[in-house]
């Protein structure tokens, strides 16, 4: 461990502590099946009424005309729902059956509208948030129930803590800032110091190999001076802020084409209290780019075995507020994609948008537990036993009828 501390602290290496294979926070997992699952947490409470617009509801225009600019029929999906403009690049996937949505869904969380508690409940997959529920996430409990799971089965990606993947099952982690800026001398030192170390030699080799395969490793001809190093790190930080979501998708796809079978990461920016039209367009564009990259990088064979679930902690108010935004609500939508999805449809028991139909006369009324859609995906994609899903993976869940999400 002293050698690890030395390496992290030594300026001669020319790389950040985050680049160390002992420090990188990302999660992936491998398992005894060939299907792939990607879970994306949309942090900030995505407005499902905006992303998947129920323009066919007679009350929608009065509630939302200020956000949509009037008619949304040109973005029609099925005669009742319309696609947010930021998601238009994915329309070909919709037509191919590789994109779908579940609407009027939520976790059991009600009324408190705290992002932190809402996200914890979503990732824990439980009915409430007692002490035990905060310790592990539903994806990790899934992995705990499957023999043969290794750290290469699942990956948690990004800097956000992923309660979703926390637990006793082995999970790997990685973040976009985990780049390796090594001079030839530093790389030689790193490999030499760890050459005979049974604990760290493999980790060092794997970290360098993965970084090289993704184009994240920079090997300058000469050792940089301090000013050059600072400038390079600043430029890298700017690039990560702009392109972090695409780097997550690129890394996830690369690992899913190899040993990994599950990847999980977060996309932020969905809290739209004001100026929602611009804010949600930016976040929606990132989500569309991530799904598009996964589709392109995985290729037809792997994409055909893949399902992507994009879930959010709760929805937003049905009415627009005075700042041209929406406030914390209840029901929302779930975005689904993948070649294994029976897409090209919106799954919903639509509650209506009349004042009396709204939850607490302010929010979209949830008509199905979002956990049920996740559970049916696991049931159909991986063959997980229903009893196990309702008692261990999602304690207290009644999955209800099969919505036939998966081919």
* Tally of domains: 1
Termini separation comes to 49 Å
Instruction: Return the string of H and E elements.
Output: HEEHEHEHEHHEEEHHEHEHEEEEHH
Strand content: 5-15%
Secondary-structure content class: alpha/beta
Estimated radius of gyration: 22 Å
CATH topology: Alkaline Phosphatase, subunit A
Label this structure with key terms.
407 residues, alpha/beta, Alkaline Phosphatase, subunit A, 7-stranded mixed sheet, 3-stranded mixed sheet, 14 strands, globular
Descriptive account of the structure:
With 407 residues, the chain is of the alpha/beta class. It has one domain (20-185, 228-393): Alkaline Phosphatase, subunit A, CATH 3.40.720. Helices cover 36% and strands 15% of the residues. The chain has helices at residues 2-9, 48-51, 60-68, 91-96, 115-124, 138-144, 184-193, 201-213, 226-256, 276-303, 370-382, 386-393, and strands spanning 27-30, 36-42, 52-53, 82-83, 99-106, 150-157, 172-174, 180-181, 217-218, 262-267, 306-312, 332-337, 346-347, 368-369. The strands form four sheets. Strands 2, 5, 10, 11, 12, 13 and 14 form a seven-stranded mixed sheet that branches. α9 (226-256) crosses α10 (276-303) and α11 crosses α12 (386-393).
């Amino acid at each position: 461990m002293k050698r690890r501390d030395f390496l992290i602290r030594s300026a001669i290496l020319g790389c950040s502590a985050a680049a160390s294979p002992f420090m990188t926070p990302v999660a992936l997992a491998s398992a005894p099946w060939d299907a792939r699952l990607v879970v994306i947490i949309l942090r900030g409470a995505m407005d499902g009424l905006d992303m998947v617009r129920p323009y066919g509801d007679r009350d929608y225009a009065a509630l939302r005309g200020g956000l949509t600019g009037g008619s949304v029929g040109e973005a029609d999906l099925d005669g009742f729902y319309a696609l947010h403009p930021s998601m238009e690049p994915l329309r070909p996937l919709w037509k191919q059956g590789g994109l779908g949505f579940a609407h009027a869904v939520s976790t059991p969380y009600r009324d408190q509208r705290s992002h932190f508690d809402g996200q914890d409940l979503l990732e824990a997959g439980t009915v409430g948030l007692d002490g035990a529920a905060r310790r592990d996430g539903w994806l990790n409990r899934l992995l705990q129930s499957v023999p043969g799971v290794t750290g290469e089965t699942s990956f948690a990606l990004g800097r956000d803590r992923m309660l979703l993947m926390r637990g006793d099952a082995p999970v790997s982690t990685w973040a976009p800032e985990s780049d390796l800026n090594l001079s030839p001398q530093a790389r030689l030192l790193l490999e030499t110091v760890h050459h005979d170390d049974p604990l760290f030699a493999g980790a060092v080799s794997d970290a360098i190999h993965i970084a090289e395969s993704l184009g994240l490793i920079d090997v300058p001809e000469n050792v940089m001076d301090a000013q050059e190093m600072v400038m390079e790190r600043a430029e890298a930080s700017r690039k990560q802020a702009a392109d972090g979501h695409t780097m997550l998708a690129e890394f996830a796809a690369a690992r899913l084409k190899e040993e990994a079978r599950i990847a999980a990461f977060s996309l932020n920016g969905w809290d739209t209290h004001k100026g929602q039209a611009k804010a949600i367009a930016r976040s929606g564009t990132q989500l569309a780019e991530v799904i598009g990259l996964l589709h392109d990088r995985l290729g037809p064979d792997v994409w055909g075995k893949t399902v992507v679930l994009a879930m959010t902690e709760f929805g937003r108010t049905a009415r627009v507020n005075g700042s041209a935004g929406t406030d914390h609500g209840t029901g929302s939508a779930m975005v689904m994609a993948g070649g294994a999805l029976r897409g090209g449809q919106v799954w919903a028991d639509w509650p209506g948008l009349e004042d009396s139909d709204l939850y607490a006369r302010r929010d979209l009324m949830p008509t199905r537990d979002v956990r049920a859609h996740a559970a049916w995906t696991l049931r159909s994609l991986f063959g997980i036993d229903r009893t196990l899903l309702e008692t261990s993976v999602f304690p207290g869940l009644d999955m209800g009828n099969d919505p036939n999400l998966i081919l």
